[in-house]
Amino acid sequence: MAKKMSKKKPVTRSAAGKKVAKKTAKKAAAPSKAKAAGNGLAPVKVGTGGGASAAEIGRDLVALFNAGKADEVEKKWWSPKVVSVEGVGMAWNGAKAATAKNQQWYSENEILGGSAEGPYVGASGFSVKFRMHVKHRASGKETMMDEVGVYTVQGGKIVREEFMYGGG
């Protein structure tokens, strides 16, 4: 029977003749979640999710308004769960309620002219500046109305709109 010969790896020795441990490269450990989050101080990515972007929706909203087709925005871009907030501190939850709010406003007012400027686009939505020449139907009084609409977009739909009035 032949004797098995074991292959020994050569031992690295220092100048003093002592064995030197072989250094192996190690992967850096992933930072803990607490460190990665910066204890809540680090920024986190925000966005609108899939679907049409805030810029696309904003450009189309401005184009529709300027073409006198503001009512098409509701049908085309509103989420069924849209929340519409007016500057007086009232909110309408859901597309049906928000549509009813708009119909009430149009029954009391007539837009004689108007323009939309923007959109001003951010990571999660956009804003639009509106200027409207409005006639109150009951009194006949005409006014110029300035407001900014701030829109939040999620999944290619407007999920929240908030109107802020000028001259406040």
Any chance you could write out the topology, listing elements then pairs?
Layout: H1 33-36, H2 54-66, H3 71-77, E1 78-86, E2 90-93, H4 95-108, E3 109-121, E4 125-136, E5 142-154, E6 157-165
In words, what does this structure look like?
The protein is an alpha+beta fold and 168 residues long. The chain has a domain at 54-165: Roll (Nuclear Transport Factor 2, Chain: A), CATH 3.10.450. It has 4 helices and 6 strands, in the order αααββαββββ. Strands 2-1-6-5-4-3 form a 6-stranded mixed β-sheet. The longest helix has 14 residues, at 95-108. The chain is rod-shaped and about 105 Å long.
Biggest sheet strand order reads 2-1-6-5-4-3
> What is the overall silhouette?
rod-shaped
Name of the top-level CATH class of the domain at 54-165: Alpha Beta
**What count of helical segments does DSSP give?**
4
Number of beta-strand segments: 6
Low-pLDDT segments, ≥5 res = none
* Structural class estimated from helices and strands: alpha+beta
Report the sheet-strand fraction.
35-45%
CATH topology of the domain at 54-165: Nuclear Transport Factor 2, Chain: A
Largest sheet properties: 6 strands, mixed
CATH architecture of the domain at 54-165: Roll
- What's the helical proportion of residues? 10-25%
Please outline what is shown here.
This protein is an alpha+beta fold and 168 residues long. It has helices at 33-36, 54-66, 71-77, 95-108, and strands spanning 78-86, 90-93, 109-121, 125-136, 142-154, 157-165.
